[in-house]
Amino acid sequence: MNNEPVAWMAINKSTGIGYIQKDKPTKMNKMDNEYTALYEQTPVAWLAIGENTNVFFDKETALAIDENATPLYTHPAKILTNDVVNELWAGSQEDGIAMQHGFTTQQHYFAHLILRKAN
Prior knowledge:
By secondary structure, the chain is an alpha+beta fold. The chain has helices spanning 27-32, 59-65, 82-92, 97-100, 106-118; strands at 7-12, 18-21, 33-38, 45-48, 54-56, 70-72.
């Protein structure tokens, strides 16, 4: 599996309109948009449902049993460094920022930032 993004999902900060772009965002792009990297994944196995319902590590065998075999993927873990967590914490502590984003407490806003960054 390639660890480089294959595309980027962009959401315009002022309009909320989203789109996908192939090129890596520049600093100039990041002023107006919030980006999420999109990665390509290769199936690790296939679920074939038929007379011999089973999980197969060989795609051809799975397709011979079930022409609609379901690809199975791993979920890549994302590690948040202390620096990233500290940066998110500092950003969540700005006066009134939690309320601006619809949260009643800064703790809720911080939790939201952590989960969003981890995804």
